[in-house]
Amino acid sequence: MEDLILAIVKPLVDHPDDVSLHAEESDSTYFYQLSVNKEDMGRVIGKQGRIAKAIRTLVYAAGQKADKKVRLEIID
């Protein structure tokens, strides 16, 4: 799952080395915190959050295979 998120986000940004992903797992949930460079924040979120919504949709769909809920938070 982490590889999927990084494979989607890194090509979108100008500073791929600044992309970091922190993961936590509980019994029924995967929780991911994605951090990118401040200059790349707009590229990851997109107009009206469309890119962020698309990323979350892909990640949530992949989480369905594992029978766990997935939460993705994009932080500064």
TrEMBL record:
Function according to Swiss-Prot or TrEMBL: A probable RNA chaperone. Forms a complex with KhpB which binds to cellular RNA and controls its expression. Plays a role in peptidoglycan (PG) homeostasis and cell length regulation.
Cellular component aspect of the GO annotation: cytoplasm
InterPro entries: KH_dom-like_a/b (IPR015946), KH_sf_prok-type (IPR009019), KhpA (IPR020627)
Subcellular location: Cytoplasm
Family membership noted in the UniProt record: Belongs to the KhpA RNA-binding protein family.
Keywords: Cell shape, Cell wall biogenesis/degradation, Chaperone, Cytoplasm, RNA-binding
Organism domain of life: Bacteria
The name this protein goes by in its record: RNA-binding protein KhpA
Family annotation (CDD domains): KH-II_YlqC-like
Primary subcellular site in the record, as a coarse category: cytoplasm
Record-level GO BP terms: cell wall organization; peptidoglycan biosynthetic process; regulation of cell shape
Quaternary structure, from the entry: Forms a complex with KhpB.
A GO molecular-function annotation: RNA binding
